[in-house]
Amino acid sequence: MEITFLGHASLTVKLDDHTLLVDPFITGNPMINDAVKLKDLNPDFILLTHAHQDHVLDVEAIAKQANSKIVSNYEIAMHFQEKGFEVHPMNHGGSWSFPFGKLKYVNAVHTSSFADGTYGGQPGGFILSASGKTIYVAGDTALTMDMKLIPEEFNLDLAILPIGDNFTMGVDDAIRASEFVKCDSVMGYHYDTFGYIEIDHKQAKDSFKKAGKKLHLLAIGESLSI
After folding, report:
1. Along the chain (226 residues), what's the average pLDDT of each consecutive run of 10 residues?
2. Which parts of the chain span the membrane according to its record (predicted)?
């Protein structure tokens, strides 16, 4: 399993026979560099954690060029189905076996609306089990006690957690989240894109290290294999 950071909360997950794209926000990201080009993204599936523009901005362009299936909560899935896209709706606590592996849609504490104010259902995260590995993509979320349920069912190889604070967990709560989910390997995301979520990289890594954990802060376009 190869995970490539595309900036903000966007990433791809490359599996044996499929590629997944999570929360595409490319054209509106001021930090995007030449390492990421919209025309090069051809995922089989697009996973959406919630409806905010900084997570769904480029869904339609990418899904159209790649003929991707969109996976998200019911409201978001129906929003894109009405626009003619192929979708798979899910809701909290539900699991489904896809051709690439198994997804479970889990709780997140945040808000969810489209740019025009349309209701985007309740936000969530994904547990992905595929290619012999299991990862947690938390989406935009606060620290929540529900995270303690995850290790009762899954042994995580990687937790992908927001660390930018203000709109989501910050570094300290992400460390607590990693304890809740019992995963010491964390990939941080949802940081630095805007002034509200800028972080001190060294301080963040040192805090995780002090807690006996590893924080991966990838450059845009950089990949991590697990």
Report:
1. 98 97 97 92 98 98 98 98 98 98 98 97 98 98 98 98 98 98 98 98 98 98 97
2. none
Tokens of 84: 């003619």
40: its two tokens: 């090069």
Note the pTM of the prediction, 2 decimals: 0.98
> Tokens standing for 30?
């001021």
In which element (H, E) is residue 189 found?
strand 185-189
Ranges of each domain in the chain = 2-219
Q: What is the distance between the alpha carbons of residues 23 and 41, in angstroms, rounded to a whole number?
A: 12
Range 27-32 contact pairs with CB under 8 angstroms and sequence separation of 24 or more:
27/57, 27/58, 27/61, 28/53, 28/54, 28/57, 28/58, 29/54, 29/193, 30/193, 31/7, 31/192, 31/193, 31/220, 32/6, 32/7, 32/220
Give, as one character, the DSSP assignment of residue 168: S
